[in-house]
Amino acid sequence: MKKNLILAAGVISIGLLGACMQEEKYVEIKTSAEVEPTEVEELSSEEVTEEPEFEEEEMSELEASGSFEGQIGYYADAFGGGVERDNADVIKEDGHPAEYYYYGEATAFINEFENSLDVRDSMKEDFNNLMALSFIIEVEQEKVLDGVTLPKGTDKWEAHKYWNEPTDRQKQAIKYMSLVFNDLDIAVNELPKEPTGYTYFSEGKKVEEIEKFISSSN
Questions:
Q1: Which helix (H) or strand (E) holds 55?
Q2: Fewest Cβ atoms nearer than 10 Å: which of 27, 84, 92, 171?
Q3: What contacts 198, CB < 8 A, 6 or more positions away?
Q4: In angstroms, how far is CA 209 from the centroid of its own chain?
Q5: pTM, full prediction
């Protein structure tokens, strides 16, 4: 996705995680990934993570407008499979897990939400849930790197081959984000589809399911 071009230098630094989440919707999460050294050499974070390549794509007119509707449409597409579609060649050639690219989109969403996105009052509860899910994706990415050691001489571009597998909780958080963005996209862009019921805005009956997941420890 195009936003990933902006993120390419940023997503590699897991130590940048940590933000404050309101207690009633999310909790404070401050973490940093410490990568254990091999017996031979000390590994820096740059040696454990690497900057992925991203496919550049042309934005739609709606996305390029920078409007709220355009941003919702963008993330609905990204979490609805656009990430895997647009990075398919890189994922296949380099072997990066698809979850790594969703992690990049979650980081982009956090930055945009905190700095520039003007959320409608009627959707703030849903965006609180989206933020909580994004933080879960970030925290679970740390577990992908937890305890990782690299054989001496490993090229940093091959480091991901030694990562732990993406966690089930990370995968589920990605799934829930796709469902929430899907329902918001249907609402704000007036799409001729039925919502799945995962937003307060659409008076969904499945919001409780998401919030139970958010509040659970694993």
A1: none
A2: 92
A3: 176, 179, 180, 182, 183, 204, 206, 207, 209, 210
A4: 20
A5: 0.71
Residue 66 is predicted with a pLDDT of 67
For the chain, which ranges sit under pLDDT 70? 1-66, 218
**What is the rounded (10 degree) CA torsion for 99, 102, 103, 104?**
130
Q: Token digits for 14?
A: 């897991």
Residue 174 · residue 102 · CB < 8 Å: yes
pLDDT of the residue at 57? 45
Within 15-67, residue ranges assigned H as helices are 45-48, 61-64
Report pLDDT digits (tens) over 25-46. Answer: 343 333 333 434 434 344 444 4
Compute the C-alpha angle 14/18/22, nearest 5°: 150
pLDDT for 1 equals 58
- Residue 56's pLDDT is what? 44
Of 85, 138, 145, nearest to 109 by C-alpha is: 138
Q: CA–CA separation, 180 vs 199, rounded Å? A: 6
Residue with tokens 């003007």: 118
